[in-house]
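SEQUENCE WITH STRUCTURE:
===
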Amino acid sequence: MVNKKIWCAVLLSAVMIVGAGCGQKAKTAPPPPASASEPSSIQADESTSPPVTEGTAPDDSTAGSNSGNDSSGETGETKGESTGEAAKDQPSFQKLTVDVYYTDPQEMELKKAQKEIRYQVPLEKYVEAFKALQDSGSPDLVPLWNKIELTKMSLDTDTGLLHMDIHIPDEARLGSGGEQFALDSLKQTMFQFDEIKAIDILVDGQAVESLMGHMDLDHPIKRGE
């Protein structure tokens, strides 16, 4: 009877020991494997970084527009300054009333008239004076240089020598009296400018002996001669 109780106690102890071991194994057992459809890890740049929005990123088109506006403004200002400087550098027109000499319809004598000319630089003053010799604007005043072409003109400011190169068409040629009046009208018109001391007239680039074949032509024609 006593033996039977001992065996029951031993058996009960064994059962308890076995049960305790099973419970410990159940507690320490690893969790079930993760499903293949779930991610194994989450990267910080995929989950924690905020998305970049239009408000966050710099607007390149706006920057370009602003840059363009600034550039166009500076360009317009630069153009305005350049135009203003060019206008300042360009000489303004000056007006001058000059004496111009023609002859009467019968070519008996020289007639003085006054004409207003406009010029920007000094050399233009002499060119415009010559043009005035070509057109009197009156039937009572005959221009003796109206058919003669001025091809070149220059002034040596050191000596006061006015160089003229002209072309004389056949229909512009005059008789001896007309040729003399033509030379006299040119001299009196040009020598009213104090800076001109002498005039050298070339015909088609040549220093000819006579303007139209009647009167001697000096090279140069000096003031007072």
Summary: The CA atoms of residues 8 and 14 lie 10 Å apart. The chain has a mean pLDDT of 77. The first strand starts at residue 94 and ends at 103. The radius of gyration is 56 Å.
